[in-house]
Design a protein that fits this description.
single chain; alpha+beta; 5-stranded antiparallel β-sheet; 17 strands
């Protein structure tokens, strides 16, 4: 079989020599010149079409179909998942203004919450009010570990104890507040669980108000985000958790949240650490005027994880400002029947649009000119509409009007 294949492809030497002597016709000089010009033209067109994206502003009856690039498809596939270098067992990144979860993993899995349980303690105290009421510290409040530094017999207000519980994560302050609220710590824990049920926190159950490891003491990233969002509605809470250090009732308090003052935009919230829980963190970040929350549970390095997750969220989603400013260009120039030159501009402001990175390039601007009839041209007269489209979907519109420069 192999021999047959060799014979089939063999060409005698004489035939090969005769084939080499065959002449290939050459193009005339005029034809060569035309071919060169055609090649240059085709090369220029290829460069233009491949090197530049679609125009930002289009005058068209409808949007042109757009396909996703390989890079955009890769971004879509990775979106929503934490980077592999993140060690946390459960993570959640949430944009408040967009009301959208950007990154998530095991968000509904029940885990030991450590001192993040103090968020429910703070919520009950804030919901009840009476923050100026005085509280006498008792010996049973002094349970050790993270502490505000209280002494039995001290008298502080409920508000001062809130500072001591949330900044240095004082267990003594948490127990004093629980006893003050319900008379007994056990009754306060019952109220914590009742409130968790009212809020629909399906994975949350409390055994103590300070977050010590205990059988049955659980919460989830999703539940803790719900608590954080409720607490964020209290200006006092935001003030406390956004404070890196303070002196309250003679006690020097230092926040356990090491991101405060060390990472741009961080404005809270709380840490937690126990043997069962590992390192936990809820971090609040103001990113360009938009609030984000990062929930990290069961981490080996919560601050590395927080920075990594924030960088991933920054690259995967962004707020796009929809602005079309008036420009004195030919594109915005129109003429009336008397050949008088006018310009068109968009009226009104449009809220920023929250977009994944792979959709940002699909945002296009389409202008629908509908000029007024002759004799009705005047400044601020309606001249059409400006459509902001994401693919084929219209996400915003602006009125176009005439103006004179």
């Amino acid at each position: 079989m192999i021999t047959q294949q060799i014979k089939a492809t063999y060409v005698p030497r004489e035939r090969f020599r005769r084939a080499k002597r065959c002449k290939v016709p050459r193009l005339l000089p005029a034809a060569q010149s035309q071919a060169k010009r055609l090649c240059l033209l085709l090369g220029f067109l290829a460069l233009f079409l491949c090197g530049f994206g679609p125009p930002t502003l289009l005058d068209s009856d409808g949007p042109a179909p757009q396909s996703l690039t390989i890079g955009q498809l890769r971004q879509m596939a990775q979106a929503g998942r934490p980077p592999e270098t993140v060690s946390a067992q459960a993570v959640l990144v949430y944009d408040v203004d967009a009301d959208r979860i950007l990154i998530q993993q095991n968000v509904a899995v029940a885990r030991a919450p450590a001192s993040l349980a103090k968020l429910m303690t703070a919520l009950l105290i804030l919901e009840r009010g009476g923050l100026e009421q005085r509280v006498v510290v008792e010996g049973g409040d002094l349970v050790g570990e993270a502490t505000m530094g209280l002494q039995a017999g001290e008298v502080l207000t409920a508000q001062e104890l809130l500072w001591g519980m949330l900044i240095p994560s004082g267990n003594d302050a948490a127990l004093a507040l629980a006893r003050h609220h319900s008379g007994q710590v056990e009754l306060f824990v019952q109220r914590m669980n009742q409130r968790a049920q009212e809020l629909g926190l399906a994975q949350t159950n409390f055994v103590n108000p300070n977050g010590f490891d205990a059988n049955g003491q659980t919460s989830s990233a999703q539940d803790l985000l719900t608590l954080t969002r409720l607490l964020w509605g209290y200006p006092l809470f935001r003030q406390i958790v956004g404070t890196a250090s303070a002196t309250v009732a003679g006690h020097a308090l230092l926040s356990t949240n090491e991101l405060l003052g060390a990472y741009p935009g961080v404005n809270g919230v709380k840490t937690g650490t126990t043997t069962a829980a590992g390192q936990s963190l809820i971090a609040g970040i103001d990113r360009g005027g938009h609030q984000l929350f990062v929930v990290i549970l069961g981490s080996a390095d919560r601050y590395f994880d927080a920075r990594t997750l924030l960088a991933a969220a920054q690259s995967s989603h962004a707020w796009a400002d929809l602005r079309y400013t008036a420009r004195l260009t030919a594109l915005d120039r129109v003429y009336d029947v008397d050949q008088k030159r006018w310009f068109v501009r968009a009226e009104g402001e449009i809220p920023a649009l929250f977009l994944p990175a792979w959709e940002r390039q699909r945002l296009r601007l389409y202008r629908r000119l509908q000029l007024p009839p002759p004799g009705l041209w005047s400044p601020a007269a309606s001249a059409g509409v400006l459509e902001w489209r994401l693919g084929e979907e219209i996400v915003a519109t602006q009125r176009l009007v005439l103006y004179l420069p």
